[in-house]
Design brief:
A hairpin with a 4-residue loop joins strand 12 and strand 13. This protein is mostly beta strands. The chain is elongated and about 70 Å long. 7% of the residues lie in helices and 55% in strands. Strands 1-2-3-4-5-6-7-8-9-10-11-12-13-14-15-16 form a 16-stranded antiparallel β-sheet, with no helix packed on it. The relative contact order is 0.07. The longest helix is centred in the first third of the chain and has 7 residues. It contains 3 helices and 16 strands.
Length: 256
Protein backbone atom coordinates (compact mmCIF):
# COMPACT_ATOMS: atom_id res chain seq x y z
CA UNK A 1 0.00 0.00 0.00
CA UNK A 2 1.37 3.42 -1.00
CA UNK A 3 -0.73 6.57 -0.92
CA UNK A 4 0.07 10.31 -0.96
CA UNK A 5 -2.95 10.89 1.31
CA UNK A 6 -3.81 7.97 3.57
CA UNK A 7 -6.70 9.66 5.40
CA UNK A 8 -9.37 9.03 2.72
CA UNK A 9 -8.38 5.38 2.17
CA UNK A 10 -8.16 4.56 5.89
CA UNK A 11 -11.50 6.23 6.54
CA UNK A 12 -13.10 3.70 4.17
CA UNK A 13 -11.56 0.99 6.39
CA UNK A 14 -13.09 2.55 9.52
CA UNK A 15 -10.01 4.44 10.71
CA UNK A 16 -11.14 8.01 11.45
CA UNK A 17 -9.18 11.23 11.96
CA UNK A 18 -5.94 9.93 10.47
CA UNK A 19 -3.93 12.93 9.22
CA UNK A 20 -3.71 13.66 5.51
CA UNK A 21 -0.10 12.54 5.07
CA UNK A 22 1.63 10.08 2.75
CA UNK A 23 1.55 6.51 4.07
CA UNK A 24 3.35 3.42 2.89
CA UNK A 25 3.08 -0.05 4.40
CA UNK A 26 3.55 -3.67 3.43
CA UNK A 27 4.48 -7.09 4.71
CA UNK A 28 3.43 -10.74 4.87
CA UNK A 29 0.24 -11.83 6.63
CA UNK A 30 -0.92 -15.45 6.64
CA UNK A 31 -4.09 -16.77 8.30
CA UNK A 32 -3.94 -20.23 9.84
CA UNK A 33 -7.17 -21.27 11.61
CA UNK A 34 -7.78 -18.52 14.19
CA UNK A 35 -4.33 -16.98 14.00
CA UNK A 36 -2.66 -14.34 11.89
CA UNK A 37 1.06 -14.85 11.32
CA UNK A 38 2.70 -11.50 10.57
CA UNK A 39 6.23 -11.09 9.23
CA UNK A 40 8.28 -8.24 7.80
CA UNK A 41 5.41 -5.77 8.20
CA UNK A 42 6.56 -2.14 8.08
CA UNK A 43 4.77 1.21 7.85
CA UNK A 44 6.26 4.63 7.07
CA UNK A 45 4.85 8.15 7.21
CA UNK A 46 6.34 11.60 7.81
CA UNK A 47 9.86 10.20 8.43
CA UNK A 48 8.46 7.82 11.07
CA UNK A 49 8.68 4.03 10.80
CA UNK A 50 7.21 1.07 12.67
CA UNK A 51 7.89 -2.64 12.18
CA UNK A 52 5.78 -5.54 13.40
CA UNK A 53 6.06 -9.33 13.42
CA UNK A 54 4.55 -12.18 15.39
CA UNK A 55 1.28 -14.01 15.88
CA UNK A 56 -2.16 -12.53 16.54
CA UNK A 57 -4.79 -14.85 18.05
CA UNK A 58 -8.19 -13.87 16.61
CA UNK A 59 -10.11 -15.77 19.29
CA UNK A 60 -10.13 -15.89 23.10
CA UNK A 61 -9.90 -12.10 23.33
CA UNK A 62 -6.49 -12.14 21.59
CA UNK A 63 -5.02 -14.14 24.51
CA UNK A 64 -1.85 -15.93 23.42
CA UNK A 65 -0.92 -13.28 20.87
CA UNK A 66 2.78 -12.43 20.77
CA UNK A 67 4.17 -9.48 18.84
CA UNK A 68 7.59 -7.93 18.33
CA UNK A 69 7.39 -4.18 17.74
CA UNK A 70 9.90 -1.50 16.81
CA UNK A 71 9.22 2.21 16.43
CA UNK A 72 11.38 5.06 15.13
CA UNK A 73 9.93 8.57 15.43
CA UNK A 74 11.88 11.50 13.99
CA UNK A 75 10.28 14.14 16.22
CA UNK A 76 7.71 13.39 18.96
CA UNK A 77 6.39 16.96 18.99
CA UNK A 78 5.66 16.96 15.25
CA UNK A 79 4.03 13.53 15.50
CA UNK A 80 1.84 14.69 18.39
CA UNK A 81 0.69 17.73 16.45
CA UNK A 82 -0.45 15.49 13.60
CA UNK A 83 -2.79 13.69 16.03
CA UNK A 84 -3.89 16.81 17.98
CA UNK A 85 -1.63 15.98 20.94
CA UNK A 86 0.60 19.03 21.42
CA UNK A 87 3.28 19.46 24.06
CA UNK A 88 5.33 16.31 23.45
CA UNK A 89 9.12 16.75 23.61
CA UNK A 90 10.71 17.79 20.27
CA UNK A 91 13.05 14.81 20.32
CA UNK A 92 13.44 11.52 18.43
CA UNK A 93 12.08 8.28 19.90
CA UNK A 94 13.41 4.78 19.34
CA UNK A 95 11.53 1.85 20.86
CA UNK A 96 11.74 -1.92 20.46
CA UNK A 97 10.32 -4.81 22.45
CA UNK A 98 7.80 -7.62 22.66
CA UNK A 99 4.20 -7.92 23.83
CA UNK A 100 2.38 -11.10 24.84
CA UNK A 101 -1.28 -11.14 25.84
CA UNK A 102 -1.98 -13.55 28.71
CA UNK A 103 -5.67 -13.79 29.57
CA UNK A 104 -6.68 -10.39 30.97
CA UNK A 105 -3.05 -9.37 31.35
CA UNK A 106 -0.03 -8.43 29.29
CA UNK A 107 3.61 -9.49 29.50
CA UNK A 108 6.11 -7.09 27.98
CA UNK A 109 9.80 -6.58 27.40
CA UNK A 110 11.33 -3.25 26.38
CA UNK A 111 14.74 -4.05 24.90
CA UNK A 112 15.47 -0.48 23.90
CA UNK A 113 13.71 2.83 24.52
CA UNK A 114 15.44 6.13 23.86
CA UNK A 115 13.79 9.55 23.92
CA UNK A 116 16.51 12.10 23.33
CA UNK A 117 18.97 11.46 26.18
CA UNK A 118 16.49 9.35 28.19
CA UNK A 119 17.09 5.58 28.02
CA UNK A 120 14.93 2.79 29.43
CA UNK A 121 14.98 -1.01 29.58
CA UNK A 122 12.14 -2.88 31.28
CA UNK A 123 10.49 -6.29 31.41
CA UNK A 124 7.45 -7.31 33.37
CA UNK A 125 3.73 -7.95 33.40
CA UNK A 126 0.45 -6.09 33.78
CA UNK A 127 -1.86 -8.54 35.57
CA UNK A 128 -5.10 -6.89 34.38
CA UNK A 129 -5.30 -4.39 31.52
CA UNK A 130 -8.37 -2.88 33.18
CA UNK A 131 -5.91 -1.71 35.87
CA UNK A 132 -2.81 -0.72 33.85
CA UNK A 133 -1.05 0.74 36.94
CA UNK A 134 -0.77 -2.77 38.40
CA UNK A 135 2.71 -3.56 37.07
CA UNK A 136 5.30 -6.13 38.13
CA UNK A 137 8.56 -5.22 36.42
CA UNK A 138 12.32 -4.90 36.49
CA UNK A 139 13.65 -1.62 35.12
CA UNK A 140 16.85 0.22 34.25
CA UNK A 141 16.51 3.92 33.37
CA UNK A 142 18.98 6.69 32.55
CA UNK A 143 18.20 10.42 32.45
CA UNK A 144 20.45 13.38 31.60
CA UNK A 145 19.62 14.97 34.97
CA UNK A 146 16.93 15.42 37.64
CA UNK A 147 15.67 18.89 36.76
CA UNK A 148 12.08 17.55 36.28
CA UNK A 149 12.00 16.57 39.99
CA UNK A 150 12.53 20.17 41.08
CA UNK A 151 8.74 20.59 41.01
CA UNK A 152 8.34 17.74 43.55
CA UNK A 153 11.30 18.55 45.83
CA UNK A 154 12.05 22.24 45.14
CA UNK A 155 14.20 22.62 48.28
CA UNK A 156 16.84 20.18 47.06
CA UNK A 157 19.67 21.55 44.91
CA UNK A 158 20.13 18.52 42.69
CA UNK A 159 23.77 18.08 41.68
CA UNK A 160 24.55 18.00 37.97
CA UNK A 161 25.20 14.74 36.20
CA UNK A 162 23.49 11.77 34.60
CA UNK A 163 20.85 9.99 36.69
CA UNK A 164 20.65 6.18 36.65
CA UNK A 165 18.18 3.94 38.47
CA UNK A 166 17.46 0.22 38.48
CA UNK A 167 15.27 -2.06 40.56
CA UNK A 168 11.95 -3.86 40.73
CA UNK A 169 8.28 -2.85 40.87
CA UNK A 170 5.83 -5.25 42.50
CA UNK A 171 2.10 -4.68 42.22
CA UNK A 172 -0.24 -4.90 45.22
CA UNK A 173 -3.95 -4.28 45.68
CA UNK A 174 -3.50 -0.67 46.80
CA UNK A 175 0.10 0.13 45.92
CA UNK A 176 3.15 -0.68 43.86
CA UNK A 177 6.16 -1.68 45.94
CA UNK A 178 9.69 -0.55 45.09
CA UNK A 179 12.27 -3.27 45.77
CA UNK A 180 16.08 -3.04 45.56
CA UNK A 181 15.96 0.31 43.79
CA UNK A 182 19.47 1.72 43.38
CA UNK A 183 20.06 5.25 42.13
CA UNK A 184 23.09 7.29 41.10
CA UNK A 185 23.31 11.00 40.36
CA UNK A 186 26.84 12.17 39.76
CA UNK A 187 28.71 11.22 42.96
CA UNK A 188 25.51 10.72 45.00
CA UNK A 189 24.28 7.15 45.64
CA UNK A 190 20.89 6.16 47.05
CA UNK A 191 18.73 3.11 47.74
CA UNK A 192 14.95 3.28 48.01
CA UNK A 193 12.33 0.80 49.22
CA UNK A 194 8.67 1.32 49.99
CA UNK A 195 5.29 1.81 48.39
CA UNK A 196 3.81 4.05 45.72
CA UNK A 197 0.09 4.10 46.50
CA UNK A 198 -2.49 4.23 43.74
CA UNK A 199 -3.88 7.52 45.14
CA UNK A 200 -0.59 9.23 44.09
CA UNK A 201 0.87 9.18 47.62
CA UNK A 202 4.02 7.35 48.76
CA UNK A 203 5.65 5.77 51.81
CA UNK A 204 9.37 5.29 51.23
CA UNK A 205 12.60 4.54 53.10
CA UNK A 206 15.61 6.34 51.64
CA UNK A 207 19.34 5.89 52.29
CA UNK A 208 21.75 8.25 50.57
CA UNK A 209 25.43 9.14 50.58
CA UNK A 210 27.56 11.68 48.74
CA UNK A 211 30.53 14.05 48.91
CA UNK A 212 28.72 17.40 49.38
CA UNK A 213 25.93 17.98 51.94
CA UNK A 214 25.10 21.51 50.76
CA UNK A 215 22.34 20.05 48.55
CA UNK A 216 20.23 19.74 51.76
CA UNK A 217 20.76 23.32 53.02
CA UNK A 218 17.44 24.74 51.80
CA UNK A 219 15.54 21.62 52.85
CA UNK A 220 16.83 21.83 56.46
CA UNK A 221 16.59 25.62 56.68
CA UNK A 222 20.24 26.40 57.47
CA UNK A 223 23.54 26.24 55.57
CA UNK A 224 25.58 23.05 55.64
CA UNK A 225 29.26 22.63 55.00
CA UNK A 226 30.52 21.01 51.84
CA UNK A 227 31.42 17.76 53.58
CA UNK A 228 30.69 14.10 52.82
CA UNK A 229 27.33 12.94 54.15
CA UNK A 230 25.14 9.93 54.75
CA UNK A 231 21.37 10.28 55.13
CA UNK A 232 18.62 7.89 56.22
CA UNK A 233 14.99 8.96 56.37
CA UNK A 234 11.39 8.01 55.75
CA UNK A 235 9.66 9.98 52.99
CA UNK A 236 5.86 10.10 53.20
CA UNK A 237 3.03 12.08 51.62
CA UNK A 238 2.35 13.14 48.06
CA UNK A 239 3.94 15.54 45.53
CA UNK A 240 2.02 18.49 47.04
CA UNK A 241 2.77 17.74 50.71
CA UNK A 242 5.51 15.46 52.02
CA UNK A 243 7.18 14.81 55.35
CA UNK A 244 10.54 13.42 56.46
CA UNK A 245 10.42 10.94 59.34
CA UNK A 246 13.28 9.80 61.60
CA UNK A 247 15.79 11.76 59.56
CA UNK A 248 19.41 10.98 60.39
CA UNK A 249 22.08 13.00 58.62
CA UNK A 250 25.77 12.40 59.26
CA UNK A 251 27.92 15.31 58.09
CA UNK A 252 31.61 14.53 58.31
CA UNK A 253 32.04 13.74 62.02
CA UNK A 254 28.80 15.50 62.98
CA UNK A 255 25.23 14.24 63.20
CA UNK A 256 22.15 16.38 62.41
Amino acid sequence: FDSPDASAVLELAGVENFPAVPLKFGGHVQKAQNRLNISEFAAEFQNNRTELSGTLNLSEGFSGSELTVSLDVADMDKLGQLFDTPGLPPQPLTLSGTLELEGKGLAFRVDQSELGNIRLKMNGRVADLDNPLGVDAEFDVSLPGLDPLSAILPDLAWPPGEFNASGRLKNGLRSTRLEDVHMELGDVRATVTGNLLHDNSFDLDVSMQGPDATIFSELLGHPLEAKPFTLDTGLNGNPAELSLEELLLNLGESRV
